């Protein structure tokens, strides 16, 4: 018998098929081989990607979509936008506080993401933390703002503003942000909104 006839794909004699090498003199091995060969002929189910893979792909896609809508605001452009959302005087903070905070946390960049050593992220123009306020793929926090962190990464500031309004209701207020405490708190911030038209 030629080698070509012996090594037919899917036969018991094919050492590459992963089946037992059947020798005619061993009837039990031959029986086992025929059972395995019959199993190989049965229709196979197609393998599906695990659910986590689909979640990761969806997350990455949402990041791409969000980054395509990202924007770096100018100082007055952001002041006007935040004024429109009613942040002037909200919880005792003037508009300059909010603009100063946005500058020192993200440089007015809606797409800013800072990765922390513990795996959490700070997201968007106000660098809102995934530890407590927004949700990532891993269940790592209470998600008090009831949004995905990726929702904070686009030029529509609605989600970001709604979330920061919840954050400043906490006892620390804007003091929750270290950047605000170090660069804005207790200072004359009038320059942040000087010359801006509302």
Write the layout of secondary structure elements.
Elements: H1 3-6, H2 27-41, H3 51-68, H4 75-84, H5 95-106, E1 113-115, E2 121-123, E3 128-129, H6 158-167, H7 178-183
Antiparallel strand pairs: 1-2, 2-3
What do you see in this structure?
A hairpin with a 5-residue loop joins β1 and β2 (about 120-125). The model is unreliable at about 1-35 (pLDDT under 50). The chain has helices spanning about 5, 25-40, 50-70, 75-85, 95-105, 160-165, 180-185, and strands spanning about 115, 120-125, 130. α4 (about 75-85) crosses α5 (about 95-105). It has about 200 residues and is mainly alpha-helical. The chain starts with a helix and ends in a 15-residue tail after the last helix. It is built from 7 helices and 3 strands; from the N terminus they run αααααβββαα. The protein has a 3-stranded antiparallel sheet with strand order 1-2-3.
Number of helices: 7
Spatial ordering of strands, largest sheet? 1-2-3
Largest sheet: 3 strands, antiparallel
**SS-based class:** mainly alpha
Oligomer: single chain
Q: What integer value in Å does the Rg equal? A: 30 Å
């Amino acid at each position: 018998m030629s080698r070509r006839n012996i090594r037919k794909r899917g036969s018991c004699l094919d050492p590459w098929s992963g089946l037992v090498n059947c020798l005619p003199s061993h009837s039990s091995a031959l029986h086992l081989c025929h059972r395995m060969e019959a199993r190989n002929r049965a229709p196979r189910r197609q393998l599906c990607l695990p659910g986590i893979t689909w979640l990761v792909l969806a997350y990455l896609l949402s990041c791409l979509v969000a980054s395509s809508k990202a924007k770096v605001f100018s100082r007055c452009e952001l002041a006007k936008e935040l004024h429109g959302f009613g942040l002037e005087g909200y919880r005792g903070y003037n508009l300059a506080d909010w603009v100063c905070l946005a500058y020192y946390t993200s440089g007015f960049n809606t797409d800013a993401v800072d990765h922390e050593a513990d795996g959490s992220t700070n997201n968007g123009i106000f660098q809102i933390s995934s530890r407590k306020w927004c949700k990532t793929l891993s269940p790592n926090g209470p998600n008090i703002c009831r949004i995905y962190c990726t929702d904070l990464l686009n030029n529509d500031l609605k989600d970001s503003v709604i979330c920061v309004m919840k954050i400043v209701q906490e006892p620390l207020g804007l003091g929750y942000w270290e950047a605000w405490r170090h660069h804005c708190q207790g200072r004359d911030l009038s320059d942040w909104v000087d010359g801006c038209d509302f």
